[in-house]
Each structure stands twice: as C-alpha cells, then as structure tokens.
C-alpha cells in the first residue's frame, strides 16, 4: 500500500468515526445512554454492529468519544475565556439542542454508581470549576463585588449554566437561556451595598 493509499484509508476511517460519533450523539439524545444500543447507532450509519465495533470496540469507548468531541466543540484557548464569551457560548448552545440534550441526559445518568461516564464528568467538573475560578479572578480579582472568592463563586456559575440548560430543554418557549445568563451576570457584578 502506498503512502497516498494509506492516507486516504486513514482519512476515510476518521470520517467514518466522526459519522459514528454524530449518530451516537443523536441516539443518546433520543434514548439516553442506557437506552442507546450499538445496534441502533450502527443502523443509523449503515453499518453492521460488527462494523461499528471495528471503530469503537465497546459502548463505553463510543460514549467517551462523544463526550470528548462535545468538549472539543466548546473548547476555548486557555486564558481566553471571559464572562462575556460565556454568554455567547450559551447563545451557541441554544442553536444546538441535540448536543445540549445529549450532554444533559448523560450528566443526569452519570450520577448513578457504576455509570461509565461518572469519572469523566467528575474530572470534567473539577476542571470546569477551576477554569471558571480563573475567569472570575481575571474579571474581578481576588473578591467578587459580593465578597465571595472566585473559588466559592465558580460552582455557582457552573450550576447556573447547567441549570438553565435543563430548564430550557424542558420548556424552550419560556426559558431564554442567553437572556437569563446575561441577567445572572448583571447580578454577579452588582455589589451588596
């Protein structure tokens, strides 16, 4: 096999993996992780289950790929994230309900003991809280107007972000995530006095 043929085969394999991950995201959004099957994902991309297993040897490996892709889509370069950019991320999420639904479904399921995404979400949230504390420190210094430290406020900001997603998924006509988050940023910046 020539170098060009090997590169073409590798590109096709990467494209097929990406197609499988997108299909898995859709199936998980519709059925949840526990209700999603490899057979359903394989059918959606026109593969046999054995063909899918060639790319992802287990359901857990496919789940990790879905979660990693979702994080890559939302990644911001270190030190570049600001509170106003978070508001833009909320607006962006409102344009992709299937991804938000999949993330939310997996997050909810992951709190159960033994769920394959539990460790992933535990580690992810530790990193997200640390990153949010850095964002808050860059914006406000060592103390927010309320007197809280960035480390104390960071879990609250993350809770607002995720809580808005759940409310929006349940009632998108009544909950405007972007406006609600901007309102929260206004509250965050106000002093107690």
Rg over CA atoms: 20 Å
Q: What is the succession of H and E elements?
A: HHHHHHHHH
Structural class, judged by helices and strands?
mainly alpha
Shape: elongated
Q: Tell me the count of domains.
A: 2
How much helix, percentage-wise, in residues?
A: over 70%
> Can you tell me the residue ranges where pLDDT is under 50 for at least 5 consecutive residues?
none
- CATH architecture assignment of the largest domain: Orthogonal Bundle
* Mean pLDDT across residues: 86
**Which fold name fills CATH's third level, the topology of the largest domain?**
Tetracycline Repressor, domain 2
Number of helices, where a helix is a run of at least 4 consecutive DSSP H or I residues: 9
Beta-strand residue percentage:
under 5%
CATH class of the largest domain, named Mainly Alpha
Largest sheet: none
Number of strands: 0
Q: How many angstroms does the end-to-end distance come to?
A: 73 Å
């Amino acid at each position: 096999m020539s170098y060009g043929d090997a590169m073409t085969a590798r590109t096709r394999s990467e494209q097929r993996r990406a197609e499988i991950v997108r299909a898995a995201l859709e199936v998980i959004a519709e059925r949840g992780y526990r209700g999603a099957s490899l057979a359903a994902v394989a059918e959606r991309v026109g593969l046999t289950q054995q063909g899918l297993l060639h790319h992802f040897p287990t359901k857990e490996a496919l789940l990790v790929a879905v979660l990693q892709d979702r994080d890559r889509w939302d990644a911001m370069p270190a030190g570049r994230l600001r509170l106003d950019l978070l508001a833009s991320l909320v607006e962006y999420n409102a344009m992709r309900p299937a991804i938000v639904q999949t993330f939310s479904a997996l997050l909810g399921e992951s709190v159960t003991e033994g769920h394959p995404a539990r460790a992933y979400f535990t580690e992810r949230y530790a990193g997200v809280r640390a990153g949010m504390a850095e964002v808050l420190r860059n914006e406000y210094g060592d103390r927010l107007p309320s007197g809280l430290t960035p480390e104390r406020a960071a879990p609250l900001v993350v809770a607002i972000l995720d809580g808005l997603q759940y409310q929006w998924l349940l009632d998108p006509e009544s909950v405007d995530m972007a406006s609600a988050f901007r309102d929260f940023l206004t509250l965050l910046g106000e002093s107690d006095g």
